[in-house]
Design brief:
about 0% strand, 14 helices, mainly alpha, single chain
Length: about 350
């Protein structure tokens, strides 16, 4: 009963953030001269109005969900991993290279490409963890800056050594992956693919690991009280290494499933333009880093984005209305975390004075 009450209490802030976002969106709709009711009705239809739109929303939520799970894992351990975008890109590029050039049967090549994506994303994330342990380089800063290195390195590879030169298109991209290596679609003629099943299974698995394993307990203990965790024998360096490796692995898997299930090649800027990485971070923050909540928040954010496209198609309200709602949600969540941080600092100052 107490656990149920705690769960319900944990829903207060996400629901309040969503309400604040919808209220801000309503104000924006009124400013541009649209109808609030009609706009939100079209947004709902664009996200869930038919089976086709529903599958589009599920497909859109897949990379957001996987990235959000990786970020949530790092946040629960007390490590601020903001490098999901770079990890996503390296995972996507590694998956494309493995799928294109690995001499293996299609099924084995598909699995190898997914594993390559996980390893590449995890390794890039682990680099930031190593910089923290070895040189005390702030993890938040290093993960953020490593994104830019990843963007330009991946852009170089698809612009020169790995560029598809068989066609006349001016787009920087790799060759097309063989159809036999593509992730299977869940429904014929629809966009959602097996990557969504992987993402949903990963959310359940991460929830079970955090809740019912010793490693999950150590991770949560370090996130809530690092000094107590150190006193209990938890080694920060080792925990950071495994956490960052797994966190980046989720983001790398997100890139791999996008390449194998949606784009069928690595296309320069195709994964950065939709803002998957930052939507994943937002999903983790919105759910307070709860794995199942992160999955639900990813679906919500994907619905806002696909629904926004429906709004632009059928009304005079621009697509950016979805961005307004997401921005308001971010501001609400940021205010909450800033308030919690200030309270924690005041408490530490008071304890120090008393001592």
């Amino acid at each position: 009963m107490r656990r149920l009450a705690d769960s319900l209490r944990g829903l207060v802030h996400p629901l309040a953030a969503l309400a604040a976002g919808l209220a801000a969106g309503a104000v924006a709709v009124i400013v541009v001269g649209g109808s609030v009711g009609e706009t939100y009705a079209e947004m709902w239809k664009g996200a869930f109005g038919s089976f086709y739109y529903l599958t589009n929303t599920l497909a859109r939520s897949t990379p957001i969900m996987l990235i959000g799970l990786g970020v949530a894992l790092a946040f629960r351990a007390g490590f601020f991993n903001l490098g999901a975008e770079g990890q996503l890109l390296f995972g996507a590029l590694a998956a494309a290279v493995a799928a294109l050039y690995l001499p293996a049967p299609p099924a084995l090549a598909m699995i190898a490409a997914l594993v390559a994506g996980i390893i590449a994303g995890g390794a890039w994330s682990l680099l930031a963890g190593w910089l923290d342990v070895r040189f005390r380089l702030n993890l938040l800063v290093s993960t953020l800056l490593l994104n830019y290195i990843a963007i330009y390195v991946c852009s170089y590879f698809v612009s020169f050594p790995l560029k598809d030169t068989s066609g006349s298109a001016a787009i920087n991209q790799t060759n097309m992956i063989d159809r036999a290596v593509w992730l299977p679609k869940l429904f014929k003629g629809m966009s959602v693919h097996a990557g969504f099943v992987l993402a949903a299974a990963a959310a359940v698995l991460l929830f079970l690991v955090l809740r019912h394993t010793v490693a999950g307990y150590h991770l949560r203990m370090h996130g809530s009280n690092p000094l107590f965790a150190l006193y209990g024998g938890v080694r920060r360096g080792r925990l950071m290494a495994w956490t960052m490796l797994a966190s980046g692995g989720f983001a790398g898997l997100a890139g791999a499933v996008e390449v194998l299930g949606t784009q069928y090649r690595y296309i320069d800027n195709a994964l950065t333009a939709p803002g998957y990485a930052w939507s994943g971070i937002m999903a983790a923050l919105l759910a307070n880093s709860h794995p199942l909540g992160t999955a639900a928040a990813a679906l919500l954010l994907a619905a806002l984005q696909t629904g926004g496209m429906g709004v632009e198609r059928n009304t005079e309200v621009p697509l950016e209305i979805a961005s307004v709602i997401q921005a308001a949600i971010i501001l609400f969540i940021s205010a909450r975390f800033t308030r919690a941080l200030l309270k924690r600092r005041k408490a530490r100052a008071a304890d120090g004075t008393a001592a």
